[in-house]
Specification:
Distance between the termini: 33 Å
Number of strands: 0
Oligomer: single chain
Structural class: mainly alpha
Number of domains: 1
Mean pLDDT: 88
Low-confidence stretches: none
Number of helices: 5
Largest sheet: none
Helix content: over 70%
Length: about 130
Amino acid sequence: MFRIVIVLLIIIPALEIGILIWSGQTFGIPVTILLILATGVIGAWLARREGMEALRLSQVQLQNGQVPSDVILDGICILVGGTLLLTPGFITDTTGFLLLFPYTRAVAKLWMRRYIQKKMDNGQFSFTFRR
């Protein structure tokens, strides 16, 4: 897993720089900068909106005596998506938007559930719930 993270930390920025240079040459520098700023502003607004909705839903579930497990996964996706949108670049922006939209976020949540379940089955992941 650590090797994958290291490779991604090298490959993704290199691809982002290449796409930003291509975009600057194709559309012009002002348009590229405007696109980067627009995705940041729109992403921050969307992350705030989705985050507040997840927080509201988790409060409702807690008041009803339910454990908000699905909402926690939503919150993780929203946090990561919002962070990616604040990072300049079109690849990270696309990934961030996919994590913020509820329909595409469902795919990420499914992957996270499977990953966590696999780790729990192998005894590599455990948690406790205290009242």
